[in-house]
Design goal:
The chain has 15 helices and 13 strands. The protein has about 350 residues and is of the alpha/beta class. It has 2 domains: about 10-165 and about 350-360, 3-Layer(aba) Sandwich (Rossmann fold); about 170-345, Glycogen Phosphorylase B (Rossmann fold, 3-Layer(aba) Sandwich). The strands form 2 sheets. A 7-stranded parallel β-sheet has the order 3-2-1-4-5-6-7, with helices on both faces. A 6-stranded parallel β-sheet has the order 10-9-8-11-12-13, with helices on both faces. Helix 4 links the parallel strand 5 and strand 6. The longest helix is centred in the middle third of the chain and has 16 residues, at about 170-185. It is globular and about 65 Å long.
Length: about 350
């Protein structure tokens, strides 16, 4: 793919290659920017994809002197730099060097709701204050950062992680077919895609299964994607209550996309999700999303009962009530999904491209 300079030269430094960051890179190049995109390391055991889109060239920092020289040369020659957080020494060096050389740069950050210690809070405050801009993954995060760190919202720009791109006509046909099937009494396909760790909310899901009416639960076919230290416990516990449940553990990215396209309802139960990409993927696919108020991306885009559902993150009874409502009012599922799709279009890649242009 050509990287002909048209609008500006942008430098990115991120943690690991992810589908959303690769898509962001691709869209910036397509919009006419020259982009040098660096990652601290390659794919990890947490995200061992082997089939993600690599249409754009990016760099992996191998901690070699040649890499350091190239990084600082590209950083210095860029019109603007985007640094994702400050969790490695290389991130910190770039922040410090950018401050010394008066380089315009943004920290691209998501929102953490958990309490942090005084020392970390002071460090974070310093980093946030010295950045030229803060690229925040969601407007609802502006007020949170302002309250946490006393940073003015004037330096914040909404720059969300991108949802997946889908073939619109294919998705439309799938949704029309599923709408007819669901309204005719077929099982409602409920998808969960989340790691099995404490903050992902599986304890609330399990409690919901205790509370929900058996006849209602039997109307759902549940697919769960994800691995983690708590997998075996929840695999056993959830299977004891739901006999139409399938655990797929780790899947490749293209398989994940197929699961999103074939589901009817997507559930994201995280107690503390700094952003949350899968709910946005589901909305982009015209699906009804049910998410906790601990999921930053969903809390900023969903109005309950209009284009999805938000419930209080520890309230299993409220979650059970929402799923019961959907089972009893099947006509709502794809009507709400259509509104979710319309909302998702407001945050297409052009949204981020426009905000990037505003800082150059």
């Amino acid at each position: 793919m050509s990287e002909k300079l048209v609008k500006g030269n942008i430098f990115f430094y991120n943690a690991i290659p992810m589908p959303h960051s690769i898509l962001m890179h691709k869209k910036m190049v397509e919009a006419g920017y020259k982009v040098n995109f660096w990652y601290y390391k390659g794919l990890t055991t947490m995200y061992p994809w082997s089939t993600i889109d690599n249409e754009v060239h990016y760099y992996i920092f191998n901690k070699k002197p040649g890499d350091l020289k190239k990084i600082f040369a590209q950083f210095s020659s860029a019109d603007f730099a985007v640094i994702t957080g400050w969790h490695t020494y290389m991130h910190l060096l770039l922040i410090i060097w950018g401050t010394i050389t008066r380089k315009k740069f943004a920290l691209w950050i998501d929102i953490h709701l958990e309490e942090i210690g005084w020392i970390k809070k002071q460090r974070n405050t310093i980093m946030l204050k010295i950045a030229t801009y803060l690229f925040v993954t969601g407007k609802n995060g502006f007020n949170i950062i302002n309250k946490q760190y006393g940073i003015s919202e004037k330096k914040m720009i909404d720059f969300p992680y991108l949802g997946a791109e889908f073939e619109e006509q294919l998705v439309k046909q799938i949704n029309e077919d599923r709408k007819r099937q669901v309204e005719s009494g077929a099982n409602i396909r409920l998808l969960i895609s989340n790691r099995f760790i404490e903050r992902k909310g599986y304890a609330v899901i399990l409690k919901m299964l205790h509370l929900i009416n058996r006849d209602i639960l039997n109307q759902f076919e549940i697919s769960i994607l994800g691995t983690g230290p708590e997998l075996e416990f929840y695999k056993s516990s959830i299977s004891a209550f739901a006999n139409k449940v399938h655990f797929y553990e780790w899947v490749e990215y293209d398989v994940y996309i197929q699961h999103v396209m074939r589901c009817d309802v997507y559930l994201h139960a995280s107690l503390n999700e700094p952003f949350g990409i899968p709910p946005n993927d589901a909305m982009s696919c015209g699906k009804t999303v049910v998410a906790s108020d601990g999921v930053i991306s969903s809390a900023g885009r969903i109005t309950t009962g209009i284009n999805g559902f938000i419930y209080e993150k520890n309230n299993a009874a409220e979650l059970a009530k929402i799923l019961t409502q959907l089972a009893n009012n099947r006509l709502e599922i794809y009507t709400i999904g259509e509104r979710a799709f319309e909302t998702a279009q407001m945050y297409a890649p052009s949204y981020n491209v426009h905000h990037m242009q505003s800082v150059l």
